[in-house]
Design a protein that fits this description.
Protein name: ABC transporter ATP-binding protein
CATH architecture of the largest domain: Up-down Bundle
Structural class: alpha/beta
GO molecular function: ABC-type transporter activity; ATP binding; ATP hydrolysis activity; ATPase-coupled lipid transmembrane transporter activity
Number of strands: 10
CATH topology of the largest domain: ABC transporter transmembrane region fold
Pfam families: ABC_membrane (PF00664), ABC_tran (PF00005)
CATH superfamily of the largest domain: ABC transporter type 1, transmembrane domain
Number of helices: 23
Keywords: ATP-binding, Membrane, Nucleotide-binding, Transmembrane, Transmembrane helix
Strand order of the largest sheet: 6-7-8-3-9-10
Largest sheet: 6 strands, mixed
Bound molecules: adenosine-5'-triphosphate
Subcellular location: Cell membrane
Helix content: 55-70%
Strand content: 5-15%
Shape: elongated
């Protein structure tokens, strides 16, 4: 049962056990609230028998105090098992999701956008937190306690029990029937919320481009439509809940009326005593309260299936795993008849074979979209090929645990990701245990001194979210410094110096040439000047190798590479008039 609960509600084992305890606590709490009713039953019985005297007074005083203590104790227990346990579980759930995301192949992120994933970790977890503390245990507890109390009523008088309890199956049936409709409404509401969150995020991220293109007003019209859609779906959802919940509540209320009618008629016939009639009136006035309270939250209870579904999509997604020991004999990277597509439709790389040798620089050039960046992504196992094999020193990288494999790589991408901390800490990301001196040395090699020293706190200056306070070239130099610091045996440089001016690029190229000695280097660049000194240049065209050789050999071939060089030389003479 625990395992089923774990999957049904995306819970940890501890969380599933806490949920069971929470339901038990709520059930016991509802039953405990019946104790004062029993006391009142005896009290009225004594009154009808001629009054309360002597030891009976003490009995009622002790009984009342006992009821108070019992309800206080059980409520305290119920609070701990539902509320406190839920907060712990929410933390565990967020960490589990984040850990899982770390291991999921990047292809998953292509299908999901950031707003969606952030919302799963934050908003969905919060929705479940509320549901597991406020709604689900009381709802399940009210179902169980109502059935238990109802069953015990049959011992007193089955006719009266039937008159009071017929409403329960009818109310349950209405709730059950509503589940499908509610689920659909809740799914639609979630879709509208996601589209809205997406729109807001996109708007914030692209505010500069929107302003530059004078497109703010048009964009905001679309965004307002998305916000309206959220409101409309929320109203529909609430309306759907109201219809079913109000119907179920009205049916439950009818139970009080039929109990009174049946009791009155049996009393008149003389086949029911006043005390039993009184007991039933008392019990039915309390019996449905927990259920009615729980029904108010029916929409939230049903909609958590949507939240859980979104979490399970992450939790059940296959991970990229593999062995943790490295068995490579050297650091040659070999692509052996590799075919790959991002969307399983159009192949981006087609039967590509090459070897990037250790101690050599292998450069990739080619038209935009020809697959250069994809080669570097596959080489680092960000994605796995659809066919063929990629090896490092003879070791099939598809069988190596991705984080272990990445310990062999220093990677510099054109799109640098920086964190909202100091320059020092951003560079230290290359090697966590590096000393301050080592970080500063790497920074110096990447020519970071030139800008860091001008900042108010030097290398300790906070650089804002994703380095927003730095220029493109400065951000790229931090990324290069990370690679210097990591000093891994394989280096992937994807447009690593594209944002640098000529002076900086020359300086960093010199430092890079020291870094790359004896290493396997793959360089991707648009500037032919950047790759001219490479040991081997591979020209990609539509995912296939079109040419291969040194710059000199390729110029002689007078093919794509020679044409690209010619065009770039011409473009240097261009002016905008
Ligand atoms: N994450 C992705 N999901 C789907 N398609 C992608 C993805 N990344 C790249 N592509 C597609 O794969 C093809 C090759 O892209 P890639 O980035 O490897 O080319 P490139 O040669 O590096 O281009 P550029 O020189 O413009 O950077 C392109 O058609 C591109 O649209």
């Amino acid at each position: 049962m625990i395992e089923k609960l774990q999957h049904r509600y995306a819970l940890s084992e501890r969380g599933a056990k806490d949920l069971v305890q929470g339901v038990i606590a709520c059930t016991v709490q509802n039953i405990a609230f019946m104790f004062p009713v029993s006391l009142l039953y005896f009290f009225v019985g004594d009154l009808l028998d001629g009054g309360i005297h002597g030891s009976r007074i003490a009995f009622y005083v002790v009984g009342a105090l006992f009821c108070l203590a019992l309800i206080y104790g059980i409520t305290y227990w119920q609070y701990n098992t539902t509320f406190l346990a839920t907060y712990v579980e929410t933390g565990t759930r967020r960490i589990t999701l984040a850990e899982k995301l770390r291991k999921i192949p990047l292809s998953f992120f292509g299908k999901k956008d950031l707003a969606d994933l952030t919302s799963t970790i934050m908003a969905d977890c919060t929705a479940l937190e509320t549901a597991f503390s406020h709604f689900i245990p009381p709802f399940a507890g009210s179902l169980i306690s109502t059935v238990l109390i109802a069953a015990s009523l049959f011992f007193f008088d089955w006719r009266m029990a039937a008159a009071s309890l017929w409403v329960l199956p009818v109310a349950y049936a209405i709730v059950g029937l509503s589940a499908k409709v509610q689920q659909k409404l809740s799914d639609k509401s979630m879709d509208a919320k996601m589209a809205c969150a997406d729109g807001i995020q996109e708007c914030i991220e692209s505010v500069q481009d929107l302003k530059a293109n004078n497109a703010e007003a048009d964009y905001l019209v679309g965004l307002y439509d998305k916000i309206d859609a959220v409101e409309q779906q929320a109203v529909k959802c609430e309306f759907g809940t109201a219809v079913f919940v109000t119907s179920a509540n009205m049916i439950l209320k009818l139970g009080i009326a039929t109990t009174a009618l049946a009791g009155a008629s049996l009393l008149l016939k003389g086949s029911l005593d006043v005390l039993t009639f009184f007991l039933f009136l008392l019990v039915v006035s309390r019996l449905y309260d927990p259920m009615q309270a729980a029904l108010q939250n029916l929409a939230a209870i049903i909609s958590i299936r949507t939240n859980v579904g979104r979490m399970n999509e992450i939790l059940d997604h296959p991970v990229q795993d593999g062995r943790e020991e490295l068995t490579n004999r050297d650091y040659d990277i070999k692509f052996d008849h590799v075919t790959f597509s991002y969307n399983k439709k159009e192949n981006v790389l087609k039967d590509l074979s090459f070897t990037a040798k250790q101690g050599e620089v292998t450069a990739f050039v080619g038209p935009s979209g020809s697959g250069k960046t994809t080669v570097s992504r596959l080489a680092a196992r960000f994605w796995d090929p659809d066919a063929g094999k990629i090896t490092v020193g003879g070791m099939d990288i598809a069988k190596i645990e991705p984080e272990t494999l990445l310990s062999l790589y220093s990677i510099v991408f054109q799109d640098v990701t920086l964190f909202n901390s100091s320059i020092m800490e951003n560079i230290r990301l290359g090697r966590k245990d590096a000393t301050d001196e080592e970080v500063l040395e790497a920074a110096r090699l990447a020519n970071c001194d030139a800008f860091a020293e001008k900042l108010p706190k030097g290398y300790d200056t906070e650089i804002g979210e994703n380095g927003s306070q730095l220029s493109g070239g400065e951000r790229q130099r931090i990324s290069i410094a990370r690679a210097f610091l990591k000093n891994a045996p394989i280096i992937l440089l994807d447009e690593a110096t594209a944002s640098l001016d000529v002076e900086n690029e020359t300086m960093i190229q010199t430092a890079l040439s020291r870094l790359i000695r004896d290493k396997t280097v793959i360089v991707i660049a648009h500037r032919m000047r950047t790759v001219a000194g490479a040991d081997k240049i591979i020209v990609l065209s539509e995912g296939q190798m079109a040419e291969e050789g040194t710059a000199e050999e390729l110029l002689k071939q007078d093919g794509i590479y020679a044409e690209m060089v010619r065009l770039q030389n011409q473009s240097q003479g261009w002016t905008i008039v």
